[in-house]
UniProtKB/TrEMBL annotation:
Top-rank lineage group of the source organism: Eukaryota
Tagged with keyword RNA-binding: yes
Protein name: Smr domain-containing protein
Annotated PROSITE patterns: DNA_MISMATCH_REPAIR_2, SMR
Ranges for domain Smr: 914-987
Region (Disordered): 73-111, 228-247, 878-901
Keywords: ATP-binding, Coiled coil, DNA-binding, Hydrolase, Nucleotide-binding, RNA-binding, rRNA-binding
SUPFAM superfamilies noted in UniProt: DNA repair protein MutS, domain III (SSF48334), P-loop containing nucleoside triphosphate hydrolases (SSF52540), SMR domain-like (SSF160443)
Length: 987
């Protein structure tokens, strides 16, 4: 193998094949592609010096979206590799060094690689990968490349990932992770995608899988862009699920640039419905070519079927005629030929070609002479069928190659989307909270309250068994020094902070104490471009270094990788050497990181009390933090107390862990009498006073935290009770509303029945003259109906009395719109209001008298509307009295305004109707007296006088006013003649 091809195989072999990229150089020219250590991405390789020329592959913000042919750049040997661009050969193939010569060992890990290992970020990525739907997505998320990629993400990359996570969580939880669950139908095409941009035919099953990828991309894009119908179409049948669709149906890629993050990603999906249809029409689900793929293929297969039928018939005939020579009646196949199993000693009975013998030699596999031509024809047709099938595969493969780049981008985008969905599902499952990064250069305070260590959550399985950690960094603080008891949770706090920052950078929500995934609020923190950690001494032992030497080596690596926006995590700073020198070295390191290197934030744990004094030198830049210790139970609580220095409690912890009591007491005596501890040989009074002060501060802080937790719990309880009361009130209100509506419906039914009865009564009365007994009976029936209406309306009004009484109602005036309990659902206008709380309301042209308590105000009339309402009521009275007396209001008309109980039930019949049209004024008295006499039993008389000059109507009014049997009168309704008809009510 040429050297170039060998080296190329070396650096792509450990990665999923869909991440491999086709090099732009060719093997055999003596040039080796340089493996750059510039970034932790599959497109980055360590740069090595070649004799004349080397090659470097550019990184991309997300390697899955990089193209295959555009990332090669020629560099000269004079460009030395930089230390900041280091990715070890270990992250590639273990055999890379051997293939490159094998003489040198792998270089030590860089500081950020070591930090990722110390923080166990790879384990976290392994758990996140289990949330992916596709095999390729799982492989990518747990790959070394994806793990190390987090350090290279820019602020913009992380913000886009967090936005994408939030969108996916919101959509996924709302729709049970649809349509993202269809990603599970995407096959692993790691070996297929690189061939999409090159020549060569695909296998049938590969083409079916390509169609399935397009179908999944199509469905996801349709749902996300909301361009599909509300009915979800299945995507499991690959090409067969393709529907008619045009590229114009999709929003253009440029139009998606300002859309939400998830929508923008849809611009990289290029489904091809035409390709789906072609593959679906030509191939079965298992990749076999359909007979309908081409006419020639259909003919060949039909011919093969016919030949097989004839061949089997001939074989069966031979078996029947030469039964004694045949070992088995069932034909079999040897070397693509149909043969019979013939007994060896009767071989001559079945002439033909011998193709095989049994192991014992007792059976001979013979192709009978009569079927040789059939067999030869079948072999020819087989070859022809295979050729035609290859033609179909080639044609379909050509369609794929025509859009190979678009298909490759679609596949890579689906895998990237699957990785995003995995991060979102992990965030939702562990009740994470998003992160908002502070502005660059900001020194604002930031808090991370109630943060869980994600691996401890996964390990315990129950949130109640894991203690969350609080981080409260004040404004301008650059370093926090954590002191306190052994086994108090200091190292866990360091790892929790480191993992929280890495998760935020990677686009994963930070697990917190929220009841569910929190999409409403966000943590705020600075953006840290690097997380550099020195934790524990396991690596020192592995590298045959002492604890102190290991710490120094890692500090050297940290200094080499430092940036102003780094987060530095140092566990047990200054440990492993003389306490005095270790404390001095630790103080020097912290001062240098804060004042000289200007690192954004340093989080340090230590047992050196001298480091606590830094806070008193610069209270803004340094902060003391302690791990809480329960003196009563002699055990740590694993909580951080910010602003309070801690004590080691070593003797108490030794006693709790079971050390001999005599040894513990001896240590206590030595501590009390040791002059080097700050005492005078007769007791360490200064240390005792300092410890007492620290204890008092711890107790005060503990009390404050307790009060705060109690206040928060009470506030949460009050809020919960408020929501419960609101829910109960809403429920009661809904039930009351339902009851009122049911009563109103009952009233409406009563009204409908009453109207039907009135209509029947009117039809009976209008058929002709009726007797006084029938009229009296009808009047009594009207009264009964009226009483039933009012009783039903009163029941409904009493049901809603509480609601109406709760809010004070404004006085009802003329012109206001009201609703009568007697007529549910119908509004009327007040045309008259008396001081006795009685109203005249006009409903659909009919005046109804009602008490004020029997109406509900719907709308107050405006100042402009109120005079119009008064004028509208006046003509009803003035039409019948054009004289000054009528204009001022006659006695009978005024008295009638409050007694219109039966006004709505005045029934007109031939018997109680007096038609005066064409009559002279002097003829009125006799005609009116006769009509009034006829109508005495009915109670109303209808007088038709028309409009004309108005003299006839004036005479009618004057006569009615003087008649002793007339109680009151008014103009008829608009539907009954209006001002041309007067209705008189008899006493």
């Amino acid at each position: 193998m040429p050297a170039t091809a060998t080296l190329l195989t070396t650096f792509i072999s450990p990665y999923p094949s869909f991440l491999r990229r086709r090099p732009a150089f060719t093997a055999g020219h003596g040039r080796q592609p340089a493996l750059s250590r510039s970034h932790a991405l599959p497109c980055s390789r360590r740069r090595v010096h070649a004799p004349d020329t080397a090659w470097r592959l550019h990184p991309r913000s997300f390697p899955l979206l990089a193209r295959a042919d555009d990332d090669i750049e020629r560099v000269t040997p004079s460009s030395p590799p930089t230390q900041s661009s280091a990715v070890t050969a270990r992250s590639r193939s273990p055999s890379a060094a051997e293939e490159g010569g094998g003489a040198t060992s792998a270089p030590p890990p860089t500081a950020y690689e070591s930090s990722l290992e110390l923080l166990e970020y790879g384990r976290l990525c392994e758990h996140i990968s289990r949330m992916a739907f596709t095999d390729a997505g799982r492989a990518w998320l747990r790959s070394n490349t994806a793990v190390q990629e987090v350090m290279q993400l820019s602020r913009t990359d992380s913000e886009r990932r967090l936005a994408l996570t939030a969108e996916v969580v919101q959509r996924g939880l709302h729709a049970d992770w649809r349509p993202f669950d269809t990603l599970g139908q995407v096959p692993d095409l790691g070996t297929v995608v690189p061939r999409a941009t090159r020549r060569g035919a695909f296998e049938g099953i590969e083409l079916v899988q390509i169609a399935r990828v397009s179908a999944v991309a199509r469905r996801i894009k349709r749902v996300i862009l909301r361009r599909s119908s509300t009915k979800d179409e299945p995507a499991t049948d690959g090409a067969n699920s393709a529907t008619e669709m045009d590229d114009a149906e999709w929003a253009t890629d440029a139009a998606l640039a300002n859309e939400p993050e998830l929508t923008q990603r849809m611009a990289s999906l290029h489904p091809d419905p035409e390709l789906e249809r072609e593959i679906g029409a030509s191939l079965e689900e298992d990749g076999r070519v359909r007979s309908s793929a081409s006419p020639e293929l259909a003919q060949v297969r039909a011919r093969k079927s016919d030949i097989k039928h004839k061949l089997n018939a001939e074989l069966q005939r031979i078996v029947l005629t030469r039964n004694e020579a045949v070992q088995s009646k069932s034909p079999t196949i040897r070397y693509d030929r149909y043969v019979l199993q013939v007994k060896a000693h009767l071989r001559s009975r079945v002439p033909g070609i011998v193709h095989d013998f049994s192991a014992s030699g007792n059976t001979v596999f013979v192709e009978p002479r009569e079927t040789v031509e059939y067999g030869a024809e079948l072999r020819r047709l087989d070859r022809l069928e295979a050729k035609l099938e290859r033609d179909v595969y080639n044609q379909l493969s050509a369609l794929v190659h025509a859009k190979g780049e678009r298909f490759a981008e679609t596949y890579r985008t689906l895998i990237e989307l699957d990785a995003a969905v995995a991060r979102a599902r992990f965030s939702a499952q562990h009740r994470g909270r998003g992160v908002r990064f502070l502005e660059p250069g900001s020194e604002r305070a930031f808090e991370l309250r109630g943060v869980y260590h994600p691996l401890l959550l996964l390990q315990s399985g129950e949130r109640e068994q894991v203690v969350p950690v609080d981080f409260a960094v004040s404004a301008g603080c650059r370093a926090a020094v954590v002191t306190g008891a052994n086994a108090g949770g200091k190292t866990i706090a360091v790892k929790t902070l480191g993992l929280a920052v890495l998760m935020a950078k990677a686009g994963v929500f930070v697990p917190c104490t929220a009841a569910r995934v929190d999409l409403d609020t966000c943590y705020e923190m600075p953006f840290f471009d690097r997380v550099l950690a020195d934790i524990g001494d396991e690596q020192s032992l592995q590298q045959n270094l002492s604890t102190f030497s290991g710490h120094i080596q890692r500090m050297k690596g940290i200094y080499a990788e430092l940036t102003p926006d780094s987060l530095v995590l140092l566990d047990e700073l200054g440990a492993g050497t003389d306490p005095v020198e270790g404390a001095a070295l630790g103080m020097a390191v912290l001062r240098d990181l804060v004042y000289q290197q200007r690192v954004r934030f340093v989080f340090v744990t230590t047992h050196h009390g001298e480091l606590k004094s830094l806070q008193y030198e610069d209270a803004r830049a340094f902060e003391n933090v302690s791990v809480e210790f329960d003196d009563e139970r002699a055990r740590p609580t694993y909580r951080l107390l910010w602003g309070v220095p801690g004590r080691s409690h070593a003797i108490l912890m030794a006693r709790r862990l079971g050390l001999r009591e005599a040894v513990v007491r001896s240590a206590e005596k030595l501590l009390a009498t040791d002059p080097t501890s700050g005492g005078d040989g007769e007791g360490d009074a200064p240390r005792a006073r300092a410890n007492a002060m620290i204890d008092a501060l711890e107790q005060l802080r503990r009390r404050q935290m307790q009060l705060t937790e109690e206040a928060e719990a009470k506030a949460a309880k009050v809020e919960r009770l408020r929501k419960e009361l609101e829910a109960r009130l809403a429920s009661v209100t809904e039930r009351e509303r339902a009851v009122v509506e049911a009563r109103q419906a009952a009233v409406t039914d009563e009204v409908d029945k009453a109207r039907e009865e009135i209509a029947q009564l009117i039809r009976r009365l209008q058929r002709g003259d009726v007797s006084g007994r029938e009229v009296t009976s009808a009047s009594e029936e009207l009264k009964r109906i009226d009483e039933r209406w009012r009783r039903a309306a009163t029941d409904t009004r009493e049901d809603s009395a509480t609601d109406t009484a709760a809010a004070p109602s404004a006085p009802i005036e003329v012109g206001d719109t009201v609703q009568l309990s007697l007529y549910p659902g119908k509004n009327g206008t007040v045309v008259e209001a008396s001081k006795q709380n009685r109203l005249q309301v006009e409903v659909n042209g009919i005046r109804v008298s009602a008490k004020a308590r029997d109406v509900v105000l719907v709308k107050k009339a405006s100042a402009a509307e109120r005079p119009l309402a008064v004028k509208a009521a006046v003509p009803l009275s003035s039409n019948s009295a054009p004289s000054g007396k009528a204009a001022g209001g006659s006695r009978k008309k005024q008295a009638s305004s409050g007694a219109t109980k039966t006004a709505a039930y005045a029934v007109r019949t031939p018997a109680n109707t007096v038609d005066l049209r064409g009559v002279r004024v002097y003829e009125l008295p006799s005609l009116l007296d006769a009509g009034i006499d006829r109508s005495m039993g009915v109670g109303t008389v209808w007088i038709i006088h028309g409009f004309g000059t108005g003299l006839l109507k004036k005479g009618v009014i004057e006569y009615l006013e003087k008649h002793p049997s007339v109680a009151r009168f008014h103009d008829a309704g608009m539907n009954d003649g209006g001002g041309g008809v007067t209705v008189a009510y008899l006493r």
